[in-house]
Write a structure and sequence with these properties.
Layout (H helix, E strand, L loop, with lengths): L2 H11 L10 E3 L3 E8 L3 E10 L5 E9 L3 E6 L2 E2 L4 E9 L5 E11 L4 E11 L2 E3 L3 E7 L6 E8 L9 E2 L7 E11 L7 E2 L3 E10 L13 E9 L9 E8 L2
Parallel strand pairs: 2-9, 11-18
Antiparallel strand pairs: 1-3, 3-7, 4-6, 4-8, 5-7, 8-9, 10-12, 12-16, 13-17, 14-15, 14-16, 17-18
Length: about 240
C-alpha cells in the first residue's frame, strides 16, 4: 500500500467521534501475526498514519509484555503523515493465542497503542502447567507427576530440564500410552505416545529479590533435542514457611 492509499484508508476507518483530537491509526487496525512456532523470532513492521490535525512527536515506543525489542520508529508525524514502527518479536516461552500491544508515548505524555494478535504453536503439550508447593521450608522435597505428549500425537516426546532449572529440580520420565481426549481426565492406556514426568525439588533456593518475598514463584524450563527452538515451561508456586 503506497503512502496516499495508506492515509486514505486510515482516514476512512476512523469516525470523528471514535478518536481524540490527536490519533494514530494503523492499517490493519489489528496486525495479524499469524501462526508462528514457539521460539521463532519475527521482524514486524506496523504501518499507520496521523489522522489528526496536529503534528505528533513520539518520545518512546515500547512493547506491553515480553518478547519485543529493537524498536525503530518515525519520531515526528505531520498531520496526514505516515508512521512506521519496526521491531523484533521473540516467541520463546509463549504458546497458544497471543494478544500483544505496542505503546507509543508522545512528548506531551499522551499514549497511543497498536494491537497485534496471532497463535504460537508448541510441539510439546503439557497436561499441567502449574504446581503448588504449599508452605515450603528450605530443603524440603516436593514432587508432582504430569503427562507430556507431542502436539501432533504421532511420536513420543524427548524431554530434559534446562541447565538453570536443573539446579533446583530434577525429573524422571517413563514412556506411556495416553488417552488425551479429555484434557481434564488424562489417562494411561490410550493411543497417544507420551511421557509420565515426575518433577521433584532438590531444595528450592531463596536468594536475591526472593529474600524479601513471602511467595514462591519458580519457572521450571525444559528443553528438547528434537525441538531445540521450543521453550516449554511450568510454574511452581507456594509460600516460604519462615
Amino acid at each position: 500500500m503506497n503512502f496516499k492509499n495508506l492515509v486514505f484508508a486510515a482516514a476512512m476507518a476512523v469516525s470523528s467521534q471514535a478518536f481524540a483530537v490527536d490519533a494514530i491509526l494503523f492499517v490493519p487496525e489489528v496486525y495479524p501475526i499469524g501462526e508462528v512456532n514457539q521460539g521463532d523470532v519475527k521482524h514486524i513492521s506496523l504501518k499507520g498514519a496521523n489522522v489528526s490535525q496536529k503534528e505528533i512527536t513520539l518520545e518512546n515506543v515500547m512493547g506491553q509484555g515480553v518478547g519485543m525489542s529493537n524498536f525503530k520508529y518515525t519520531s515526528k508525524i505531520v498531520p496526514g503523515g505516515a508512521i512506521n514502527i519496526e521491531f523484533d518479536m521473540d516467541f520463546s516461552g509463549m504458546e497458544g493465542p497471543i494478544n500483544a500491544m505496542v505503546v507509543m508515548v508522545g512528548t506531551d505524555g499522551k499514549p497511543y497503542t497498536a494491537s497485534l494478535e496471532g497463535f504460537v504453536k508448541t510441539p510439546l503439550f503439557f497436561g499441567e502447567k502449574m504446581f503448588d508447593a504449599g508452605y515450603y521450608s528450605k530443603g524440603e522435597k516436593r514432587e508432582w507427576t504430569f503427562y507430556v505428549w507431542e502436539t501432533d500425537k504421532k511420536a513420543r516426546p524427548e524431554l530434559s530440564l534446562d541447565k538453570a532449572s536443573a539446579k533446583e529440580f530434577s525429573i524422571k520420565t517413563k514412556p506411556v500410552m495416553l488417552d488425551v481426549e479429555k484434557l481434564d481426565q488424562i489417562k494411561e492406556g490410550g493411543k497417544v505416545p507420551g511421557l509420565k514426568v515426575t518433577l521433584s525439588t532438590k531444595g528450592l533456593k531463596r536468594e536475591g529479590w526472593e529474600l524479601k518475598q513471602k511467595s514462591i514463584r519458580k519457572v521450571v524450563s525444559f528443553k528438547s533435542k528434537k525441538y531445540p527452538k521450543a521453550t516449554p515451561e511450568v510454574l511452581v508456586v507456594g509460600y516460604w514457611n519462615d
